[in-house]
C-alpha cells in the first residue's frame, strides 16, 4: 500500500504524472470508463469530490469495483440503483491516504457529469477528478489532506492548472461534495495554493 504523503514530501517526483499520464506513487486500478479528451484541450482544472460505498462506510473496496463496472448489485440495496452507471475519476485518496489511480491524466475520466465552470461546459474535457473517500458529514483525515495536497502540487507542476474546484462548484444544486467538512484553508496551505486558484472560499477564515 502506498504510504500517506507528508507535507514535507509533497513535491516528490513520485507524484508527477509520466508522459503516459500515470502517477508512480499511485496504485493502478485501471477503469474502462474513460475516453479521449478533445484535441488540443489543456488540463487546467482540478475537481475535488467525496465518495463512500456503501454510503457512509469506508474501506470496503467497493469504490474500485464501481469504477471498474464490477459492483455487485446484491451486496447492498444502494448498489442495485447504481451498478449499471459507468463513471470514474482519475484518482481516489483513501482514508489512510493511499493514492489509487483509475484513469491516466492524459485521458478524460467520467467524473463531473453535467457541469459548468465559469461558462465552460463539460468539465470532464479539461479537468482532473480526485475522489476523496468520505462523506459530507465526516471530517477528512490528516493523511488525506497530505496526499491530496502532494498530488495537486504535482499536477500543477505538470499541467497548466488554473483553478481547483469542488464538485459542488461545477454542479451547484446537483452536487454537494466535497462537502462542508473539507477544510479548504488547510488544503490550500499544504498544497501551496493561492486563494485565487480556489473558486470556493469558506466564510470562516
User: Span between N and C termini?
Assistant: 35 Å
Instruction: List the total number of helices.
Output: 5
CATH architecture: 3-Layer(aba) Sandwich
CATH class: Alpha Beta
Structural class by secondary-structure content: alpha/beta
**Could you please say which CATH topology applies here?**
Lysozyme-like
Largest sheet: 6 strands, mixed
Strand content bin:
15-25%
Taking strands numbered 1, 2, ... along the chain, how are they ordered across the largest sheet? 1-5-4-9-3-10
Please tell me the overall pLDDT. Answer: 92
Describe the structure.
With 205 residues, this protein is α/β, with parallel strands linked by helices. The chain has one domain (7-57, 88-197): Lysozyme-like (3-Layer(aba) Sandwich). The protein is built from 5 helices and 10 strands; from the N terminus they run E-E-E-H-H-E-E-E-E-E-E-H-E-H-H. It has helices spanning 62-67, 79-82, 142-158, 167-170, 184-191, and strands at residues 27-28, 34-36, 45-51, 91-93, 99-101, 107-109, 116-117, 120-121, 127-133, 163-166. The strands form 3 sheets. A 6-stranded mixed beta sheet has the order 1-5-4-9-3-10. Strand 7 (116-117) and strand 8 (120-121) form a beta hairpin. InterPro entries: Amidase/PGRP_sf (IPR036505), Amidase_domain (IPR002502), NAMLAA_amidase_2 (IPR051206).
Amino acid at each position: 500500500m502506498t504510504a500517506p504523503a507528508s507535507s514535507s514530501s509533497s513535491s516528490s517526483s513520485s507524484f508527477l504524472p509520466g508522459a503516459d499520464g500515470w502517477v508512480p506513487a499511485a496504485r493502478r486500478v485501471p477503469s474502462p470508463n474513460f475516453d479521449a479528451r478533445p484535441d488540443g484541450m489543456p488540463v487546467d482544472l482540478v475537481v475535488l469530490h467525496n465518495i463512500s460505498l456503501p454510503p457512509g462506510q469506508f474501506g470496503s473496496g467497493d469504490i474500485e469495483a464501481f469504477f471498474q463496472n464490477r459492483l455487485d448489485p446484491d451486496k447492498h440495496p444502494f448498489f442495485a440503483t447504481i451498478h449499471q452507471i459507468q463513471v470514474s475519476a482519475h484518482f481516489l485518496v483513501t482514508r489512510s491516504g493511499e493514492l489509487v489511480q483509475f484513469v491516466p491524466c492524459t485521458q478524460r475520466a467520467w467524473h463531473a457529469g453535467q457541469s459548468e465552470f465559469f461558462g465552460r461546459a463539460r468539465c470532464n474535457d479539461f479537468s482532473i477528478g480526485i475522489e476523496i473517500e468520505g462523506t459530507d458529514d465526516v471530517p477528512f483525515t490528516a493523511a488525506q489532506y497530505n496526499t491530496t495536497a502532494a498530488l495537486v502540487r504535482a499536477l500543477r507542476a505538470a499541467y497548466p492548472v488554473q483553478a481547483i474546484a469542488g464538485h459542488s462548484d461545477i454542479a451547484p444544486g446537483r452536487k454537494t461534495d466535497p462537502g462542508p467538512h473539507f477544510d479548504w484553508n488547510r488544503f490550500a496551505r499544504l498544497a501551496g495554493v493561492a486563494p485565487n486558484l480556489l473558486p470556493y472560499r469558506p466564510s470562516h477564515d
